[in-house]
Amino acid sequence: MINPKLAMAVISGLAMLLLAGPNAQAQQDNQSIPQASAKSQAGNPKHSSAHKQAGKPGQNHTGKRNPASEGALAQMIKPEVASKPHRLILQVNSNEPAMMNLALNNATNVAQYYRDLGEPVSIEVVTFGPGLHMLREDTSPVKPRIEVLAMSHPEISFKACGNTQENMHKAENKDIRLIPQATVVKSGVVRVMELQEQGWSYVKP
Asked: Which residues of the chain have a pLDDT value below 50?
């Protein structure tokens, strides 16, 4: 006959084993998963490195420089910079032929300089006061030279002061005719001032 106390002890032991078995297995499985993961990462250093780089906080991969794109951008900007025109005012307010020829020399040299560079340039020779004689049909000592210069360098233009022309007309009591290359502006001084305000460079011979 089986001892009742022994039977109860056996049943209690079996119950404890049944309850403890699943928990122990779960703990064993949990321990094996990190080990397997660690082994996988150790066996694949590329994956580990990539994972670390991707996980860096604050890292911006879109800011990566592209030399090819920067070079293309520079080529797009360069023609715009080169195409910016150079603009020069030359003032003549003297009736001396030497001063008139000096202004023409400067205009020719500047025009040729930028023509050789392939860069645009605009030059205005502005006359007023006694300098208007430079553009007068009857008194200009440099008329033949202006005719040649106007044909070879169309970037050079000549402006005559309308106020001075009117004053000479009153003083001499006759029409003051100008050479064909001259264009009349209301005031030579105002013309110089306005061009300077627009960024033109100013030179007085």
From this structure: 24, 26, 32-43, 45-62, 78-81
| Amino acid at the residue 123 | I
Dist CA 176 CA 140 (whole Å): 12
Q: How far apart are CA 5 and CA 9, in angstroms?
A: 6
pTM above 0.70, yes or no: no
User: What torsion, rounded to 10 degrees, do the Cα atoms 115, 117, 118, 124 define?
Assistant: -40
Q: Is residue 121 helix, strand or coil?
A: strand
Q: What is the pLDDT of residues 99-153, one digit of tens each?
A: 999 999 999 999 999 999 999 999 999 999 999 999 999 999 999 999 999 999 9
* Burial label, 143 (beta-carbon count in 10 A; 0-12, 13-18, 19+): middle
Q: Which helix (H) or strand (E) holds 125?
A: strand 121-127
| Angle, in degrees to the nearest 10, between helices 4-43 and 45-54 | 80
User: From CA 180, how far away is CA 111, in angstroms rounded?
Assistant: 21
Alpha-carbon distance 42 to 111, whole Å?
73
